[in-house]
Amino acid sequence: MSLSAYLRDNLAAIGVGVLCCLGVAGMLAVLGVGTDATVLVPCFVALCGAVVLGIGYVRRRRFYTELARIVEDLDSTYFASELVEDPGFLEGHLAHEALEAVGKAAADDVAFHRRQAESYRDYIELWIHEVKTPIAAAHLMAANLHGPEAEKLKGELDRIESHVEQALFYARSTSLVQDYSLRSVGLAACVREACKKNARYLIERGSVPAVEVADDETVFADAKWLAFVIGQIVVNAAKYGARTIRFSARVEGRGADGRTVLEIADDGCGIPAADVPRVFDRGFTGENGRAQGSSTGMGLYLVAQLCEKMGLGVGLASEEGAGTRVMIAFPHDRRALDLRS
Fold first, then answer.
1. What are the φ/ψ torsions at residue 145 (nearest 5 degrees)?
2. Which of 118, 251, 303, 332 has the most beta carbons within 10 angstroms of its beta carbon?
3. Residue 236 CB coordination number (10 Å)
4. Section 26-44 average pLDDT
């Protein structure tokens, strides 16, 4: 709150004070008490009024400045009343009470919707685990079938299972409960696990993985989450025409600042330059996704979310018509990962 704004707000009181001083001066002049008294008394009254205005300004400025700072810094502004002290002047007290009432109502509303979201997420996770049983049974029955139609059926079952797993990881990525454990895992083993899980789809699309990662290469991550992340990238590459999907690893930097970078490069159709900055946005399908007609825009979004949860960096570079490279960076500093886990 600026001084000019405060004075404008109290303009009526200032005007009345000025009129009072002039009135007192006029009465003293009529009474003939002398020039000195006629000047000094109104000046004293004006000085008292100025002191009162100054004290009011200091008290209000402290309260409103603190309130503005806290509201600006807080992510959840409905907590503001808990951090601002109740001021000693009436308007501030009323404003503080209003803040408390609004904050309590907002906190109750947030808590209600959070409980609803958690309940819904718990139901989705339970449903996913339940639906896995008939999918597994269908896989067993399809294993005894042979011929082109049987292979198509098995492929569709794989796709159903992939979408169900994607829904499960999405539910877990939005949960406050940490369902992952960061530890040293074999990078090549995770890559092979992801390729094996999506082998039928890779064969169907004519995509060949080329793993150039040393067997003794280890990184800090959750093996299950990392295999899922790599699987999403592999499926995306195959979906968009990749004939070869090449996996390579390199070490960048030294010591605590070093990192291992897994690069997944394909020779598919590539991504238009205008779409590249948004590929990790939720639900973004882009020009290629709209052309395919079956893209959900959730695969790379989940890749980014799960990498962030595990403390990994992820980036993408692509050239339309030449292919795409996805890089996942694994920091060597375990302490940084421990802070995130």
1. -95, 150
2. 303
3. 24
4. 79
- Which tokens sit at 255? 């010591």
State which amino acid sits at residue 207. S
Q: Which token pair is 336?
A: 């940084």
Q: How far is CA 260 from the centre of its chain?
A: 25
Distance, CA of 295 to CA of 289 (rounded, Å): 5
CB 94 within 8 A of CB 30: no
**Segments in the chain forming alpha helices (H):** 3-9, 11-31, 35-73, 80-83, 90-143, 148-173, 187-197, 199-205, 223-239, 286-292, 299-309, 334-340
For the purposes of burial, counting CB atoms within 10 Å of the CB of 35, is it exposed (0-12), middle (13-18) or buried (19 or more)?
Answer: exposed
* End-to-end Cα separation, the chain, in angstroms: 43
pLDDT tens column, 104-123: 777 778 788 878 877 777 77
Q: Is the pLDDT of residue 179 over 90?
A: no
Is the predicted pLDDT of residue 233 greater than 80, yes or no?
yes
Average pLDDT over residues 235-245: 91
- What is the pLDDT of the chain when averaged over all its residues? 81
Which structure tokens are listed for 217? 């290469």
Residue that the structure tokens 């004290």 belong to: 55
Residue 182: both structure tokens together = 């960061």
Beta bridge partners of 208: 244
CA–CA dist 216, 253 (Å, integer): 19
Question: Three-class SS of residue 257?
Answer: helix
- Per-residue confidence band for 290, with pLDDT thresholds at 50, 70 and 90: confident
